[in-house]
Each structure stands twice: as structure tokens, then as C-alpha cells.
Amino acid sequence: MYNKPLRDLLIKTNNNGKKLNYTFGDNSLNVSPSVIVRTRGRGRDLKSGVILRCLDYVRHWGLYYNKPNDIEFDKKESKVYWRGTTTGQPTTPGNRFDLVTNYYNKYPKIDVGFSSICQGKSNYSQYVKDEVGVPTMLQNKYIISVEGNDKDSGINWKLNSNSLVLMPRPRITSWLMETTLIPEYHYILLKDDFSDLYEKYEWCEKNQEKCKEIIKNANGFMSKFANKENEIELEKEVINKY
Q1: Mapping DSSP to helix (H, G, I), strand (E, B) and coil, where does residue 124 land?
Q2: What is the CATH number of the domain that holds 158?
Q3: Do residues 77 and 156 share a domain?
């Protein structure tokens, strides 16, 4: 997910064999500004670290460039939906543990749960629900995005869908530039503790046309990445400058 894509990029740009610094995985905190990373933020200067698109590319961009089957917003079920694994920490603002423990089986129209347990979080096993595919998630009007170890790995396809994204303000930024997303324009903003989730659901139900407008804006934001050749050239310029 990291070594091969980076090496391929270096070969394509005639930079293979040159010295560089980069870090693996989700947790790219407390590194120097000159380190190549997939994401930055949460505890670090948002301007430090050199972001590349190729790192873990398939996981984050695969379903953007190969868009899953979707249906019109009006034909979707009026539910708030989220599935994900137990990544991240319960002490982090806007974490998925608060979301699930506060809303698991609490409201018929809010369907949230962990799809699997990982990273030693077995104490949350009572909150596991059946793991479902993206097409099943897209049957719902409202989809939550919530960060884990770093960015939500599904935020790219969620913003590119016909469903409305609800989420706390992003604290992690990647090639997608999540921290430039505008609340109530690209997504519905939730409090970090998710205490307003049901209230925001009720607002959405009463303002369907506004929901569709926000979805259109989110799709427009994602359209900036649609030209694959342009994105490839931009990344080459980044690594050459580095």
C-alpha cells in the first residue's frame, strides 16, 4: 500500500535512488515537516508534511474512480447509516466510539454499529452489526463520516454519492483537502459528541431540497479530482519539487 506506489512514482519521475523521508500507515503524527505522509493534522501543523496521493491509493480512491451503483436521493430510505471498524481512540474529539455507544439501537432511523473489532477494542464487541457493502450503505439518504486512526477511508466515495454526508468537522487532511470542506454547504456539521445527531436528522427530513443542494455541492467538490491524468501530473510535480 505504501512502498510499491511510492517507488513506482519515483521511477516514473526519475527520482528513484534519491534520499527522502516518509512514514507508513495512519499515524503520521509528530514528524518533521519534510516527511512524506498520506495525511496530516490532529496534533500537528496542517501545513507540515508532504502529502502524496499514491499512498494507500486503492483504499481511498478506488471507489471514487469506480463509482458503486447508486440510486436517486428521493428513492433512498430515510435513515442515518454508519458502519466501520474500531480504529481510533475514544478520547479523540469526534470519535466513532461516542457515535456508536450513544446511538446503537436507540432510534429506528439511526442505524450505526461496528462492522468488526480491531486494534484490541474487544470491549466494544456488543456493538457489532453485520458487515455490509457500499451499495447497501448507499440505499440510505444520510451517511455518517467519522475519522478513525486518521481520515475516514470512505469519505471520498461518500461525498461523491447521492447520499448526504453528516460528520463532525474534519481534523485530518489528505490529498482530498478535507479541512477545506464547508459545513452546511458540502456536508451537515455534527457536534463532536454527536449529541445533535437526531436533531440534524429531523432537520434533514424537513428540508429535502436543501439536502439535495448540499449533495450537489459535495459532488461538485469531488469533481475537481475527476481528471485522473491531471491528478497524476500534479503528484509528479509535488514529488519533483520535494
Answers
A1: helix
A2: 3.40.50.2000
A3: yes
CA neighbor of 166 nearest in space, from 89, 103, 106: 103
Q: What's the CA gap between 217 and 162, in Å, rounded?
A: 11
pTM for the full model? 0.94
3-state SS class at 230 = helix
pLDDT tens track for 58-99: 999 999 999 999 999 999 999 999 999 999 999 999 999 999
Q: Tens of pLDDT along 199-226?
A: 999 999 999 999 999 999 999 999 999 9
H or E element: which one contains 111? strand 110-116
Q: Is there a contact between 112 and 79 (Cβ–Cβ < 8 Å)?
A: no
Residues 111 and 179 in one domain: yes
> How far from 222 is each of 51, 134, 175, CA to CA, in Å?
18, 18, 11
* Residue 129: closest CA among 155, 104, 103: 104
Assess whether 79 and 186 both reside in one domain. yes
Report which DSSP code applies to 181: P
